[in-house]
Amino acid sequence: MNLIINGLQWGDEGKGKIIDFLTNFFDINIKFNGGTNSGHVIYYKKKKKILKLLPSGIFKKNCLFLLSNNVIINFENLIKEINQTIFYKKKIYLSNNFLVNNFINELLDYILDKKLKIGVTNNGITPIFIINSLKCSIRINNFFCINFLKKIKKIIFFYNIFFTFYNLRIKFYYKKIFFKFFIYFKKLKKNIIFNEKIINNKYKKIFESSQGSLLDFNNGTIPFVTSSYTNSKSVYVTSNFFLSNIIFLGIIKCYLTRVGNGFFLSKFSIFKNLLFSKYSNEIGTNSGRVRASGWLDLNILIKTIKTNNTINLIITKLDIFIFFKKIKLILNYFLKKNIINFEKINSYKVYSKKFKSWKKVNNVYFKNEKEFHLYIRFIEKYTNTSILIISIGKNIYDLIIL
Ligand code: GDP
Ligand code: MG
């Protein structure tokens, strides 16, 4: 059996912690999207570790790791993260097809977002996908070819258009960047592999999505989305893996958060949000920005379950509600006008269900309070999807397995 794990919200559902736990039962942990624009927190030996590029199971000794194609890699960041995080360098395989990012893209991202106002993380993700559509992006396998310089010329042509338009004199950086590329490439060369070499064998695989499904370029809350596909099903399209015997699991937390711009209907008022973010530590791992928070929205969840082929759910952060008296689940909305773009709605009524909260949490499901059971069972029934794991704390074994 193989697993595909995805966050079903706008990210930060606690994927890192859950994948860290689940990797115990798999032979290979494969990251299939994302880049330095997402961040995951893992507690390893009770110490907080922040991962951006490396797969979340990276601390497991008896496991292999692959950054598959469709992951956007900035050499410098990757080497830094490897050096800071681990020791098992040889086990981190890199797909021979991944996209190479650089600091000019980060700068472009910043410039573009001044106009587009999506609230990007300035990690160069939008520019790299623009360049990719123009078919002049740099993939790691280009470093092995003699026409590499031609590729570089194409990409510089693209940059020049932008920088001339913005009247920026940035040209002298190019040589420096591409020279550095080769130094980094030499360091990582031994880790580069053809995906098929790892994938088409009998290893048990856990595929990890580094972002939330609502940020999907095609099916997310457009235009406030990332530039790549973050749905579970995208593994079939963006990779060359032979895939069979797969179970799709979706991770949600018991409330919603969102970083970057973009609206959601169950969002708390500004004051409530400030209090909540501080108390629940909802500050972006990557961006350091305060996340906007709100009640869990089952209407959106039902749609996302379908988009992701989700078979079972994992829910995190149930411990956060122990200091609450009443909590809510959003069920539906009444829209005064039949507006399809939810981002533009300003007249709506929200239908929700109130629950009493619980005062403590316990690793044994039946030792929890009645309110806890009612809440969990309601989500399962309403979404018609059963919950397999409940997370009740930030440490790896703060879990209830159902
Ligand atoms: P990811 O992007 O989905 O991997 O999530 P992040 O790591 O960015 O954010 C989730 C945060 O919640 C991290 O700081 C985790 O340590 C923490 N976390 C995960 N599960 C739980 C949980 O059940 N309870 C609490 N209190 N914190 C959790
Ligand atoms: Mg995160």
Structural description of this entry:
By secondary structure, the chain is an alpha/beta fold. It folds into 3 domains: 2-6 and 9-97 and 192-248, Adenylosuccinate Synthetase, subunit A, domain 1 (Adenylosuccinate Synthetase, Chain A, domain 1, 3-Layer(aba) Sandwich); 99-189, Adenylosuccinate Synthetase, subunit A, domain 2 (Orthogonal Bundle); 252-401, Alpha-Beta Complex (Adenylosuccinate Synthetase, Chain A, domain 3). Helix content is 30%, strand content 23%. It has 11 helices and 18 strands. It has helices at 15-22, 75-85, 103-116, 125-133, 148-165, 173-188, 195-199, 234-238, 270-280, 298-307, 370-383, and strands at 2-7, 28-31, 40-44, 47-51, 64-67, 72-74, 92-95, 99-101, 192-193, 205-212, 246-253, 255-258, 292-297, 312-316, 326-335, 348-356, 387-391, 399-401. A 10-stranded mixed beta sheet has the order 9-7-5-2-10-1-11-14-17-18. A hairpin with a 2-residue loop joins strand 3 and strand 4 (47-51). Helix 3 (103-116) crosses helix 4. It is globular. It starts with a strand and ends with a strand. Bound molecules: guanosine-5'-diphosphate and magnesium ion. Magnesium ion (MG) is lined by residues 11-12, 38-40, 285.
